[in-house]
């Protein structure tokens, strides 16, 4: 259950990163409100997952999901560039996430 909460927390992290971008530096009300709400949900789920997962594993996986998710949203939704070097960086992040999962005893 902790891993499921952690994955969902990561998805909410992607959501708040996107809504933060849409808030235009917190100058637009509703994207700003959505950002804060999604941040709170993400952090509460992360904290719940950390009850049984190691800190280093949980935080690394959470930020990795957020980083890769935001990267993909940037490419797909915001038309950001998908250069070979950026793709390699994403592959390395995913590799790190997988290694953290595999090395975890939980």
UniProtKB/TrEMBL annotation:
One term under GO cellular component: plasma membrane
The UniProt record lists the keyword Transferase: no
Keyword list, A-Z: Cell membrane, Membrane, Transmembrane, Transmembrane helix, Transport
MF-aspect GO terms: transmembrane transporter activity
Major localisation: membrane
Membrane topology: Multi-pass membrane protein
Signal peptide: none
TM segment ranges: 29-47, 59-78, 84-102
Membership in a protein family: Belongs to the drug/metabolite transporter (DMT) superfamily. Small multidrug resistance (SMR) (TC 2.A.7.1) family. Gdx/SugE subfamily.
Protein name per Swiss-Prot or TrEMBL: Guanidinium exporter
Organism annotation: Hyphomicrobium nitrativorans NL23
């Amino acid at each position: 259950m902790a891993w499921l909460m952690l994955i969902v927390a990561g998805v909410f992290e992607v959501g708040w990163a996107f809504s933060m971008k849409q808030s235009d530096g917190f100058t637009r009300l509703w994207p700003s409100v959505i950002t804060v709400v999604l941040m709170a949900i993400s952090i509460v789920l992360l904290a719940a997952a950390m009850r049984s997962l190691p800190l280093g594993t949980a935080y690394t996986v959470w930020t990795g999901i957020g980083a890769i998710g935001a990267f993909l949203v940037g490419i797909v939704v915001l038309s950001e560039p998908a250069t070979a070097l950026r793709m390699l960086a994403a592959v390395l992040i995913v590799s790190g996430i997988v290694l953290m999962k595999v090395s975890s005893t939980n």
